[in-house]
Amino acid sequence: MKKLLINIVLFILPIWIVVLLLPVNKRLLYLGLENDCSNHAKWIYDRLNNNTKPIDILFLGTSQTLNSINEKIIERELNPKVLHIANMGYCRPGRDLAYVLLKETLLTKNPKVVFIEVREDEGRYSHPIFPYLAKTSDVLMANKFFNRDYFTDVWTHFIYKLDIFQDQLYQSYDFVPINTQDFGHGTTSDTASLSYLEEIKTKRSIPGPQLSDIERNFYMRFSRHYLYKIDKFCRQHNIKLFFLYLPSYGIQTKIPNEYNTYVDYGEVIIPPFEIFNDPFNWYDEDHLNYSGSEKLSHWIAREIKRKNY
C-alpha cells in the first residue's frame, strides 16, 4: 500500500509542477472572474495595464471601499492634474488579496499613498479570490500556519490555471474590449428601509463575546502576517501607508479592535461618525449609497489636503 501511494505521488507531482509553471495570459485570469463582484477584476486589470493614467493614491479594501470611495470627487477637490486616485476595493474581506493587488499595482504604477480599509475587526481567513489572481509562488508560499484555506487555495489555483491555459490553447474565449473608465467607484442612490436599519442597529448594539488576548493573538495571526507584508512592501517602495476605518451601520465601536496593530504601520484615519450614523447614507447595512459616499469622499479629500498626505 505504501509503495502504491509513493508511485501515485511520483506520477501526479510532475503533472502538478508542469501545470503550475504553465504560462497563462494574465488578463484572462481577471476576465475569468466576470461573474464576481460586478466584474470589477476586469476593471482593475485594465486600469493597471491598459490605462496610461498614473495612480498616486490607491484605496484597497472590501466592497465597502468600492461603494464608499468616489475617486472622481476626491480628484476634483485635490487637483486632477496633479493627483490621480484609484479605488481597487474588492468584494469580501481577506488581507492576502490586498497584498496581491498592491504587488500588481507596483508592476505598472507608482502610488505615493495607500489607504487600507479596516473594519470593526480583521477577517480571519484567506480571500476567496486570492488563489485566482495570485502568482503561483504567492499561493505556494502563503502562510501555512493559522491558514485554514491553504490546501484549498493551492487546489483552486491549480484547477483555475489549467482551465485558463486550456482556454488560451484552444482560443475558446471571446475578445473583450478594454475598460477605459478611470474610476472604479460604484454604488446606488437607493436608501435602505429605515425600519430594517433600526433593527440592524439594535442587534449590533448588543455586545458580542470578547476574545481573550490569547484567542485574539491566535485568530489574528493570518491577517497580521499580511499586514506586515503590506507594510514591508510599502516601505521598500517609499509609500505612505494609512488605514481608513469604514464601519458598518449601527456599529458602536469607535476605533477598530486591531487599532494597536495598525498604528505600528501607519496612521488610522477615522471619519466623522455623523456620516455612518445617518441612515439615509446607506443602501444596506454594510454599504454606503451615493449620498453617503459623496459625503465621505469630500471629507477624505479635505483630510488629504489638511494633512498633506
Describe the model.
By secondary structure, the chain is of the alpha/beta class. Helices cover 50% and strands 9% of the residues. It has a single domain, classed as SGNH hydrolase (Rossmann fold, 3-Layer(aba) Sandwich). β6 and β7 form a beta hairpin. α5 packs parallel to α15 and α6 runs parallel beside α12. The longest helix has 21 residues. The protein is globular and about 55 Å long. It starts with a helix and ends with a helix.
Broad structural category: alpha/beta
Q: How many structural domains in the coordinates?
A: 1
Q: How many helices in DSSP terms? A: 15
- Low-pLDDT runs of 5+ residues are 4-13
The CATH architecture would be: 3-Layer(aba) Sandwich
Strand portion: 5-15%
- CATH homologous superfamily, by name? SGNH hydrolase
Mean pLDDT across all residues, rounded?
91
CATH topology-level fold name: Rossmann fold
- The total of beta strands comes to 7
Give a short overview.
It is built from 15 helices and 7 strands.
What layout of secondary structure does this protein have?
Layout: H1 2-20, H2 26-31, H3 40-49, E1 57-60, H4 63-68, H5 71-78, E2 85-87, H6 95-108, E3 113-118, H7 130-133, H8 136-140, H9 150-170, H10 194-204, H11 213-219, H12 221-236, E4 240-245, H13 259-262, E5 267-269, H14 273-277, E6 282-284, E7 287-288, H15 290-307
Parallel strand pairs: 1-2, 1-3, 3-4, 4-5
Antiparallel strand pairs: 6-7
Helix pairs in contact: 5-15, 6-12
Comma- or semicolon-separated keywords:
309 residues, alpha/beta, Rossmann fold, five-stranded parallel sheet, two-stranded antiparallel ribbon, globular
